TrEMBL record:
Source lineage: Bacteria, Pseudomonadati, Pseudomonadota, Alphaproteobacteria, Sphingomonadales
Lineage top rank: taxon: Bacteria
Species of origin: Sphingomonas rustica
Protein name: NAD-dependent succinate-semialdehyde dehydrogenase
UniProt cross-references to CDD domains, sorted A to Z: ALDH_SSADH1_GabD1 (cd07100)
PROSITE patterns given in the database record: ALDEHYDE_DEHYDR_CYS
Pfam families: Aldedh (PF00171)
Length: 454
């Protein structure tokens, strides 16, 4: 059962049954036929459909934002920004897709070589609740522009967001069955991955989900993109603009109530500026307002569920038991919603679990580091390798961090972000493959060589 649940009030809004097996079979058969037709559509038709989808999302941004706030508790202003970002992504691929997909001539002494970029077929997507529109659209736009069809299995807590996205695609003029939403249970999910009519798989989610879907994709010999967890470092060196770095650390850690794979979960600060940074950071955190996601003044909404809140509380308690010092917050908030206080921990000793695990909620971990060597060592000590944010004005330090941080993305003097033009993804237990930009487009195409001998 898919359950639409308001984490701010504890109210169940609606429930949706899992799809009947016959409906799943029909969706795959229809999607397979639709993929063949969409493959044959010219690029102008695909471009027009993506542009219309952007128009629909922008026009109804407030309606979509309310749905996001209702189902997963995102503050309404952030929810609206998420919808607008989806529209921007659709327009980026509409504008750049034709050039990205253009055949490439490869010089070769033995004849003429051409590399084509052709759609794979039906892409099966397993998506999470934390950015219920963006996570879908960031892969959907390039997949559709490349000529693929898509079947979506969204998180069981955001069924109305999933249905609304499917409806927007239909309204935008996508051909029937090119983009379908299904409410699937785990057994159905595995059968869909194994079905030969599914050409590729993509997942954004937890490590456990990634291992399960990755294993199923491997058994079926399907290409797969996995975007999993993260414990991203934000590193502040003495040459940084301290005010900007503090503001970025607060935003980077507490955006989306700390429920983002690229949140700045670990904040590493050089010892020469640690006391000043710590004081300013705590003062800024104290000003954050947690409350009703529909209140425009709210900075942090609830966590996604009472279970998520309780798991986070247990992690914090364990970290304190293992030697961390609690500087702010540290408790679930009273009331019916799944709220947790903005929390700050410091002094985590070597061996503490919180140094290497992911905390998916509003908990910042502060580390005082002696020099650049210690900053890099601590940054790299986790099993994750998604993003990193480094604040320094020293060119030599930039080169060192750029060379030695073990991750998929490093941003200097900026928070880690996802942008339509830039590759997004990680290494180690943060997954493999890339989304967005040219790289996201190439994830779901057949790079086909056509060679004519001289």
């Amino acid at each position: 059962m898919y359950r639409s649940f308001n984490p701010a009030t504890g109210e169940t809004i609606a429930e949706f049954p899992f799809a009947e097996d016959a409906a799943v079979e029909a969706a795959m058969a229809n999607g397979h036929r639709a993929a063949a037709r969409w493959r044959a559509a010219d690029l102008a038709e695909r471009r027009t459909a993506l542009t219309r989808l952007a128009d629909c999302l922008e026009r109804d941004a407030d309606t979509h934002a309310r749905l996001i706030a209702l189902e997963m508790g995102k503050p309404i202003a952030s929810a609206r920004a998420e919808v607008i970002k989806c529209a921007t992504n659709c327009r980026w691929y509409a504008d750049h897709g034709e050039a990205l997909l253009a055949p490439e001539a490869v010089p070769h002494p033995g004849g003429e070589a051409e590399v084509r970029h052709e759609p794979l077929g039906v892409v099966f997507a397993v998506m999470p609740w934390n950015f219920p529109y963006w996570q879908v659209v960031r892969f959907l736009a390039p997949a559709l522009m490349a000529g693929n069809a898509v079947i979506l299995k969204h998180a069981s807590s955001t069924p109305q967001c999933a249905a609304a996205l499917e409806a927007a695609g239909i309204e935008a003029g996508l051909p029937e069955h090119v983009f379908q939403n299904l409410y699937l249970d785990r057994a159905q999910l595995e059968r869909v991955i194994a079905d030969p009519r599914i050409a590729a798989v993509t997942l954004t989610g937890s490590e456990g989900a990634g291992m399960s879907v990755g294993a199923a994709s491997g058994r079926a010999l399907k290409p797969c993109v996995l975007e999993l967890g993260g414990s991203d470092p934000l590193i502040v060196m003495p040459s940084a603009d301290l005010g900007r770095a503090v503001a970025a650390a607060v935003t980077g850690r507490y955006q989306n109530s700390g429920q983002s794979c690229v949140c700045a979960k670990r904040i590493l600060v050089h010892r020469d500026i640690y006391p000043a940074f710590r004081q300013a950071f705590l003062a800024a955190v104290a000003k954050l307002r947690t409350g009703d996601p529909f209140d425009s003044a709210t900075d942090l909404g609830p966590l996604s569920s009472p279970q998520a809140r309780d798991e986070l509380a247990a992690q914090v308690a364990r970290a304190i038991d293992q030697g961390a010092s609690l500087l702010a917050g540290g408790s679930a908030m009273a009331g019916p919603g799944a709220y947790y206080e903005p929390t700050v921990l410091e002094g985590l000793p070597e061996g503490a679990e919180a140094r290497v695990e992911e905390m998916f909620g509003p908990v910042a971990l502060l580390f005082e580091v002696a020099d650049i060597d210690e900053a890099i060592r601590v940054a790299n000590e986790t099993p994750f390798g998604l993003g990193s944010s480094v604040w320094t004005e020293d060119g030599g330090e930039r080169r060192r961090f750029a060379d030695d941080l073990a991750c998929g993305m490093t941003f200097f003097n900026a928070n880690t972000v996802s942008d339509p033009a830039l590759p997004f993804g990680g290494i180690k237990r943060s997954g493999f493959g890339r989304e967005l930009g040219r790289w996201g487009m190439m994830a779901f195409v057949n790079v086909r060589l056509v060679f004519s001998a001289a």
